[in-house]
Design brief:
The complex is a heterodimer. Chain A is of the alpha+beta class. In chain A, about 25% of the residues lie in helices and about 35% in strands. The chains are: A alpha+beta, B mainly alpha.
Chain lengths: ~350, ~300
């Protein structure tokens, strides 16, 4: 079951939660709604579930308009950020709830609950109450409960937000495997880009109630559509410079920029990720930016080097492969030349931050 | 400040108490005990002593033989549950609105729920007279349509309900606020209708608080005197409730019958007190469990 939302808008008083949002979730895919808090991602999810009504816009399940339908009629499974398990019910009754309110026969309910508990690998906990479960177990019960009604769509709101790092890591991989097993169209909300990239097939990056970019994790990471996405998806070094006649000048660094062939120069911003910067001992033509080594930290899979550009007066983060770092044998205080392997250039007029 | 806090921590409560002069401790405790004894214990015991002054048999006779007394008991048995039922409906609706929604007039509603605590019941009675009495605003219309409110059971139920409005709502609001709406939203997302959500999720979560409110409300409804005195017209065998009947028997001679009937209310009070102790603890557990669930989720 594919989901399409078209031109959704929603306000809460003066706050614009969603501003003309359109998203498509293909059948059987796992889509992440990624964005900072207040970006509207949870509101979008709740509108898709029918827990919130949009001010304008429509929601389609396959080709069917479900905008006016109740959550029950939409048949979606929703997993809440804080699980929202029924505290006075046992695990069994929690999972059975959706079937009970649909008045399914007892034998069917029992069979299905056991089947689901097997699926989430929590057999034997039927008689426990939510307060007797760990955070990870609660999350899986919440998932089993959402799956019990055989939803056509699964929606998860910050599913791992309240768990500690290790459990979160395990559950992510588990969710990915589960998705491969049951192939249910799934949308999940997260503010953690690593989580979005690790789990999802497609990512929708949201900010201030709008979709900033949509695509596969790889595509979004490699080709961020604008500075917000670039900035949100990880560490980035920012250079201000000018574009003219197919070239961009960021201080001493010169980068090809065929998108702007005009003679009149314009202000631009160049974004470079730490791993896209290299360090040289020699100026190497026009492209090197003189800088002073401030700090080196070779612990981890890459060596993290901080340098200060005298020209820009800013600190830059450079991630060097360990071999390269050992080869250079950098010491603090020495002058080096920073060379970008890749610069993403944005014209400030293209967007408004 | 820090020194003070450490000093306090080092002292057990007993040690600190010992540092007050013994005479002061005895005087304070003694004064409190004496007040309780004079104001509460002696009158309570006296009611039972007087009620059973003529023996068990006479006690039974006082309660069962007088038809007006029997009628008063039946009337109270009808009026109190009716008023409580109304207040349960109102209390749940009001608590729901206050705990779940932010709307204009919310604070005002919260304040108004407490109003009956502040108004003298006699004034409540007079207000109902002014509305529904023969000389009242709606009096002529009601009379023309043959509807009796004052000097009849509807007036008694109304007056009793007004006086007991705060009890259920006040117990439910904190419980509902502590529990929050997450589980209710979850129920809706799983396909529950409004009623299914209410009966399967909301009610079980607040059941102890609700029961506690009902008990307090019932006790107050059964004992209501002032408002009912005014609207009922206290007609023996017709509109006398137990408290009105007690007053009437007390004015007569010999007045032992009034103590017998009063002892009934006293038994009820002691029973309520016992229930209150149990239910108060359950309600607090309900709230604490809700709070613990929240911290659990954050720390888990």
């Amino acid at each position: 079951m594919s989901i399409t939302v078209k031109h959704l808008s929603k306000r809460f008083g003066n706050f614009v939660a969603l501003d003309d949002v359109s998203v498509e979730v293909p059948t059987g895919s796992l889509l992440a709604l990624l964005g900072p808090s207040g970006s509207g991602k949870t509101t979008l999810l709740r509108i898709v579930a029918g827990l919130e009504t949009p001010d304008s816009g429509i929601i389609l399940h396959h080709d069917e308009d479900v905008t006016e339908r109740s959550p029950k009629e939409r048949n979606v499974g929703f997993v809440f950020q804080h699980y929202a398990l029924f505290r006075h019910m046992t695990v069994f009754e929690n999972v059975a709830f959706g079937m009970r309110v649909r008045r399914r026969p007892k034998a069917e309910v029992t069979e299905r609950v056991h089947e689901l508990l097997r699926l989430v690998r929590l057999e034997g906990l039927e008689k426990r109450f939510p307060s007797q479960l760990s955070g990870g177990q609660r999350q899986r019960i919440a998932l089993a409960r959402a799956l019990a009604v055989q939803p056509r769509v699964l929606l998860l709101d910050e599913p791992f937000g309240a768990l500690d790092a290790k459990v979160r890591q395990e559950l992510r991989q588990w969710l990915r495997r589960l998705h491969e097993e049951i192939r249910l169209t799934t949308v999940f909300v997260t503010h953690d880009q690593e989580e979005a990239f690790e789990v999802s097939d497609r990512v929708v990056v949201m900010n201030l109630g709008r979709v900033e970019q949509e695509g596969t994790p790889q595509h979004v990471f490699d080709h961020p559509a604008n500075p917000f996405v670039m900035d949100f998806l990880g560490n980035v070094n920012v250079f201000h410079g000018r574009a003219q006649e197919g070239k961009v000048l960021l201080g001493n660094m010169e980068v090809e920029y065929p998108q702007y062939p005009h003679a009149q120069s314009r202000d631009v911003v160049g974004y470079v990720r730490p791993h896209e910067l290299d360090i040289n001992r020699t100026p190497n033509g026009k492209s090197g930016l003189p800088a002073t080594v401030l700090q080196v930290n070779p612990a981890g899979s890459v060596a993290k080097v901080r340098v200060v550009s005298d020209e820009f007066g800013i600190a830059l983060n450079v991630d060097l492969p360990l071999e390269r770092y050992n080869e250079l044998a950098l010491t603090t205080g020495e002058t080096v030349y920073v060379v970008p392997r890749r610069v993403r250039v944005f014209m400030p007029d293209d967007y408004v931050i | 400040m820090q020194v003070d806090a450490q000093w306090l921590k080092a002292q057990s409560p007993r040690q600190r108490a010992h540092q007050e002069p013994a005479i002061l401790r005895w005087a304070l405790t003694g004064a409190a005990m004496a007040t309780i004894a004079i104001l509460i214990i002696i009158p309570v015991v006296n009611v039972f002593v007087q009620a059973f002054a003529d023996g068990w048999r006479a006690y039974g006779r006082y309660l069962t033989e007088d038809p007006d007394t029997r009628h008063a008991m039946l009337l109270t048995l009808f009026v109190a549950p009716a008023a409580v039922a109304g207040n349960v409906l109102f209390g749940i609706a009001a608590a729901w609105a206050i705990a779940r929604f932010r709307f204009r007039g919310r604070t005002m509603l919260t304040t108004l729920i407490d109003l009956p605590f502040a108004i003298s019941p006699v004034v409540v009675g007079l207000t109902f007279m002014l509305l529904f009495g023969q000389q009242g605003y709606f009096g002529p219309w009601l009379q023309a349509h043959g509807i009796k409110i004052v000097f009849a059971w509807p007036g008694i139920v109304l007056a009793t309900a007004f006086v007991t409005v705060p009890f259920v709502a006040r117990e439910l609001i904190p419980v509902m606020e502590a529990i929050g709406s997450d589980e209710e939203t979850a129920a809706v997302s799983l396909g529950a209708s409004g009623w299914q959500m209410f009966w399967r999720v909301t009610v079980p979560n607040v059941k102890w608080g609700l029961l506690y409110g009902v008990i307090l409300c019932s006790a107050r409804a059964i004992g209501e005197f002032g408002a009912v005195y005014v609207v009922s017209g206290h007609i023996a065998g017709q509109t006398d409730t137990i408290p009105l009947r007690i007053e009437k028997l007390f004015q007569a001679y010999p007045n032992t019958g009034s103590y017998a009937l009063a002892s009934l209310l006293m038994f009820l009070a002691l029973f309520t007190l016992a229930l209150k102790v149990v239910l108060e603890r359950k309600t607090r557990q309900e709230i604490e469990a809700a709070a613990a669930a929240v911290t659990d989720q954050v720390s888990a």
